[in-house]
Amino acid sequence: MASALRASNANKSPYQIEAAPLPDRYARGWHCLGLSCGFDDGKPHSLNAFGTRIVVFKGADQRLRALSAWCPHMGADLGIGHVEGNRVVCRFHGWAFGGEGACEHIPYSKTIPPKARVRSWPLQQRNGLLFIWNDEQGQLPPPEQDMPQLAEYGTPDWSDWSLSHWVINNNCRELVDNLADLAHFGPVHGSSNVKYFANIFEGHRATQVMVGINERLGGTRNHLTTVATYFGPACLICRMSGEADGMPVESILLVTNLPIDQSHFQLGFGVMVKRIPALSEAQNQAMIKHYVDLSIQAFTEDVAVWHNKVRVDNPLLCAGDGPIRQLRDWYAQFYKDVEAVPAQLGQRRVVEINLGLNTPAPALRHAFSG
């Protein structure tokens, strides 16, 4: 019998993980560069993104601009140069580039080569953050995909952003998968009592609605409720209602990914917290810091996993995993030419999983969308 069992097991082949080569392009959409005030000092700022280097600078007219940083003359980084008027000037030979990418001045030449131009990148400021638009086809961003304006930002009732960054040694898709990954909340985050989980996929937006218990952020007596929406492939904004030290707390979370190359991305995590009227300003500041620290601790529990996993295009899924394949279908649109995106992705699709919620479920709508 034992030998027969060994023979039976020997005939069972292990599951084969499949992974196609990484995309040869970067996702189309808005990507967050960080707090916009970080680029306000009148100096050029270099950053690595989309497999290249980009320079961001503010001109004399107070407009922010973004250009490919490698000077086409001899290859120096424009980010180590300086700003004159509305131009960034290369430190190597003094070539000056305007905000649209054209070379406008060479100090030692009366003529400028017609091809002396670098790529320019559209920028957008929203809610104290700076976003850059990437499109491999070179098309301008459609207005309907603008980042939402948060009514809470900049008001006395809410804190400023507390923003942190990490570099993750993996592809961006590993982060985005979390939006539909119901099963990871227990093992990774301790939210073992999820009562309700839903996803909405509609055009460039994808949303997760969740109700569950998380002792750190929601307390043990009340449910933690989150409504989190990706506005395109790289920026998630989440409204969260929870509890800290027995007091109800409202917060807004920000999760962003900025691809450095296909195997590394900058992960951004921001938190805004609503002040509690019954507390003094000193007490509110202490409460906000405590809640931000708890939020960062909970969020970074995923980081060790992202650093230590491989790409799986054919995940072996089971009941209770969440609609991961539907999410990936939605996410794949950002790696296609606009005209190749299937029309059905613009239609609203809802996947709803009720695990015993005995109170009314949150409204099934995207966060911060009216």
From TrEMBL:
Domain Rieske, chain residue ranges per copy: 30-132
Cofactor: Fe cation
A GO molecular-function descriptor: monooxygenase activity
Residues annotated as signal peptide: none
One GO process term, biological-process aspect: cholesterol metabolic process
Tagged with keyword Iron-sulfur: yes
Keywords, ordered alphabetically: 2Fe-2S, Iron, Iron-sulfur, Metal-binding, Monooxygenase, Oxidoreductase
UniProt-listed PANTHER family: 3-KETOSTEROID-9-ALPHA-MONOOXYGENASE, OXYGENASE COMPONENT (PTHR21266:SF60), IRON-SULFUR DOMAIN CONTAINING PROTEIN (PTHR21266)
Name the record gives this protein: 3-ketosteroid 9alpha-monooxygenase subunit A
